[in-house]
Amino acid sequence: MADLLVTGGAGFIGGNFVHYWANRHPDDRIVVLDALTYAGNASTVAGVEQAELVEGDIRDTALVERLLRERGISTLVHFAAESHVDRSISGPDVFIETNILGTNSLLKAARKVWLDEGSGTPHRFHHVSTDEVYGSLGPEDPPFAESHQYQPNSPYSASKASSDHLVRAYHHTFGLDVVTSNCSNNYGPYQYPEKLVPLFLLNALHGRPLPIYGDGMNVRDWLHVADHCRGIEACLARGVAGETYNIGGGAELPNMAVIDTICAEVDRAFADNGDLARRFPDAPAARGRATAELKTYVEDRKGHDRRYAIDETKARAELGYAPAHGFEDGLRQTLHWYLANEAWWRPLLAC
């Protein structure tokens, strides 16, 4: 495998991928391009010797061209995106600029360096997308397959759907070697604490409310980020140019079940480790109380999709992909990572 350019590689999924790839491919160099906005953290990849962090914007086409050309890179893995639905509702413009215009900038740079200047040199552009582009499922609907009609319901998912179409168009129009993967809800280490799992974990540690949208019964498929990284590796190695692969975790759960599991795991951790009560005295569990007492119902999110579910049959059959993490074990590992890495997340709480 050639050296990689990883966009958004100081973010949650991108940062985990950088660690994963460095461990699996120790001879490869990794150039991380990240704008280091609120969700990008240089410390996420600081310990990866093979990784070079370049602070920059994916909309800077000249910069991307220079990195591809000067570093001799022929594989680009594109994670960089604005991804928080609530933020897309309150401020859609940055989602359009980053997710659509930014992706177009990368595609232009890749086309120029790999096709125009490189005369079709072997390459791969891997685009990381989301199951949210497919819209919402009813309780009895079959899971999303790759052929499912796009029906995005938020500015975030609409911007990702647009970027998916651009990637497809650059393959069919210009011959760029692209693969797209659409993933379900990721969780794991290094996730910025605005998403459900780290938000509720850290709120529980500090005795803050656990805000539950609506009735808490919106359903998502949960994917451990390490499994997602394995899926992307399989796409890079065996994915067919121009194809899309759904990467799921095989854990379709209502949000309330996820929240109850988080509460139970926090209570278990405090029961097993007496030092946690000293470190986090505001947690109900520090006083022998149930973390679940922090659950608080709030007004539902605008346009809140009711259910997502992933059909990963194609990825299993063509790529040999299968998730390795069960949800409860994966969540327990995630909680223990946050407990062991307070120095990473503590500064983020002041942002």
TrEMBL record:
* Sequence ranges assigned to domain NAD(P)-binding in this UniProt record: 5-334
- Stretches of Polar residues bias are at 148-159
Q: Which domain of life is it from?
A: Bacteria
Gene Ontology BP annotations: nucleotide-sugar metabolic process
Read off the CDD domains from this record. dTDP_GD_SDR_e
Q: Where is this region: Disordered?
A: 138-159
Tagged with keyword NAD: yes
**Can you say what this protein is called?**
dTDP-glucose 4,6-dehydratase
Q: Could you tell me which species this protein originates from?
A: Aurantiacibacter arachoides
- Lineage of the native species? Bacteria, Pseudomonadati, Pseudomonadota, Alphaproteobacteria, Sphingomonadales
Gene encoding this chain?
A: rfbB
